[in-house]
Amino acid sequence: MELSNNKILVTGGASGIGFGMAERFIKDNNTVIICGRRAEALKEAADKLPGVITKQCDLSDNAEREELFEWIQTEHPDLNVLVNNAGIQNWMDISDARFFERAKEEIVTNIEAPIHLTTLFLKLRSAKTIMNVTSGLSFSPFVKVPVYSATKAFFHSFTQSLQVMLRSKNIEVIEVVPPALNTDLGGKGLHDAAPPVSDFIGSIFNQLKDGKTQLTFGASETRAQAGQEILKPIFDQMNQIAAK
């Protein structure tokens, strides 16, 4: 992937990993569009990122995804990079009263939305790169977030297939595989002890410079490269408290 002179859409770009990626892309001389549900979060991001373009959009809504693409087609037809970053994580148990309802929210946001956006984005003649943000939990699930883990495993698998399907079209597909980071994903304070987003961003952009198409960091690197002989002990250790 060329790291400068692109026009890039980052979904969920107002905070967390999406914000970190948007900030770095702008620093590297790219035009960046971020979208998100909350107008106030987008405004805060715009105040911190001079030149960023914002678009309010609820990606869980099919019609709003269509509207987002129509706006891109009209206002930014030269968009050439899509970053499917937006996602939600619910800490929950199968016995929770709203388990199924909350599971559907995760499935729509973490699976349906990025697949839909990908099919829309590929209509652009300028399309050149798709970046899909999965998770270290794609490889070894955490039972406190059972549906989130499953959606990311799905998205990892889909991304692998997409890499092959789009090869003949010369469209590069890159998988970004974060571990737990110090963000508000899942709720405030849950990941305060995790590594900072800035360290993760620095690492994955170095990997992009090296031409890698699976970008990992810390614990996610171990999981992405491991077989079951390594993943099973990780799963057992990570979930031993949750299982009691």
What would you note in describing this structure?
The longest helix is centred in the middle third of the chain and has 23 residues. The chain is an alpha/beta fold and 244 residues long. The protein is built from 8 helices and 7 strands. A 7-stranded parallel sheet has the order 3-2-1-4-5-6-7, sandwiched between helices.
Q: Any descriptors?
A:
alpha/beta; 244 residues; globular
Helix/strand class: alpha/beta
The end-to-end distance, rounded to whole angstroms, is 45 Å
Overall pLDDT, averaged?
A: 93
Considering DSSP H and I runs of 4 or more, what fraction of the residues is helical? 40-55%
**Overall outline:** globular
Instruction: Round the Cα radius of gyration to an integer and report it.
Output: 17 Å
Strand-and-helix sequence, N→C?
Answer: EHEHEHEHEHEHEHH
Largest sheet: 7 strands, parallel
What's the total number of strands?
Answer: 7
Count of discrete alpha- or pi-helical segments spanning 4 or more residues: 8
Beta-strand level of the residues, as a percent range? 5-15%
Strand order of the largest sheet: 3-2-1-4-5-6-7
- Unreliably modeled segments: none
